[in-house]
Amino acid sequence: MPPSNDRSMTPAPESRNPSASRSLLDTRSLSAVEITKIFEHADQLKALGDKHGNFFEPQSTIHRKSALVCLLFFEPSTRTRMSFQAAAYRMGHQVLTMDLLSGSSLAKGETYSDTILNVAAMEPDIMVVRYGKSPELDRLLPGLPMPIINGGSGVQSHPTQALLDAYTIRAHRGELTGQRVLIVGDIIHSRVARSNFDVLTKLGAEIGVCGPKSLLPNENEVPGLRLFHDLDQAIGWATVYMALRIQLERHDSIEGKRSGLDQYRQDYVDHFGLNRTRLKTLSKDAMIMHPGPINYGVELPLEIQEDPRSRILEQVTNGVLIRSALLSRALGEMPG
Ligand code: CP
């Protein structure tokens, strides 16, 4: 992250944002009822899409305004960024984005905060922001004068991913209550896992985690969370298997740097990879999920592409619906 030089631009206080209730910075601000409303609106948009190809009635006399949606991603992204873009176009909105490091004034040393404040001054209707660990941006974003949607922040929060994950499980199982979701991998560095703990628990699912001890949360960190150290035992428990990648870019120090990355990877694959043998022991009815990007041969085998239990591309499709519903919510157009 570029150095801070933001003293000239004081972050706006939270109270200056009249649309704060339509922002989505963290799933902790959502109740189970609100999450269900988002899912129901995504269902309605899907029905419109099936009928018209886009998520609005072409002849509607109460057609809402076409909004300007700004995407500011300070970390790489394929799914989140492009599905917000797809969602915006499907809703009839306009998208403002930029090539961050090569094509913006970040290359001249402008800070992320100044970049955000300058783009906000262009008065987009909604801003979607992704960033790494940054207490400065955590403070700045809630005070901006338009709804803000978090596209993934540090290791803390990835609200839209958790919502689309839960929506995908609901599409197959009807409800989350009674589901046993096993999240496998680098849990402590995963914003996807953290947001999923919150959303899935609120909706009634049980959650188990499995991975190397050094990558698992403390037993007391998440109430009700089941910790598994043996994947072969955990597999028998799961109705949903959610694999995560090891996020080396977020490791301050990793065992791999000491023991050699290849050895670290092989140990990981042996103990925590869903290999062909383990695929056979996973229930025939289980759902297999992954937020992407996948490291084939590490957390999942290449064969997963042909496995009928895989819901990984459905997650991506549902991501467009959920993000469309969240754009409606941000504009105050989601049915109450
Ligand atoms: N799941 C997810 O956040 O993917 P991207 O990093 O490609 O957006």
What percent of residues are in strands? Answer: 5-15%
Strand order of the largest sheet: 7-6-5-8-9
| Straight-line N-to-C gap | 39 Å
Q: Give the helix/strand class.
A: alpha/beta
| Cα radius of gyration in angstroms | 20 Å
* Ligand species: phosphoric acid mono(formamide)ester
Largest sheet: 5 strands, parallel
So what's the overall shape?
Answer: globular
The number of distinct β-strands equals 9
Element pattern in H and E: HEHEHHEHEHEHEEHEHHHEH
Residue runs with pLDDT of under 50 for 5 or more positions: 1-15
What average pLDDT do the residues reach? 90
Helix content: 25-40%
- How many helical stretches? 12
Describe the structure in your own words.
The chain has 336 residues and is α/β, with parallel strands linked by helices. The protein contains 12 helices and 9 strands. It has helices spanning 32-52, 79-90, 100-103, 112-120, 135-140, 159-173, 191-202, 231-235, 255-259, 261-272, 276-281, 312-330; strands at 68-73, 94-97, 126-131, 148-153, 180-184, 206-210, 226-228, 240-243, 287-289. The strands form 2 sheets. A 5-stranded parallel beta sheet has the order 7-6-5-8-9. Strands 2-1-3-4 form a 4-stranded parallel beta sheet, sandwiched between helices. α5 links the parallel β3 and β4 (148-153). α1 packs across α12 (312-330) and α6 crosses α7. It is globular and about 55 Å long. Bound molecules: phosphoric acid mono(formamide)ester (CP). Phosphoric acid mono(formamide)ester is lined by residues 77-81, 152, 161, 291-293.
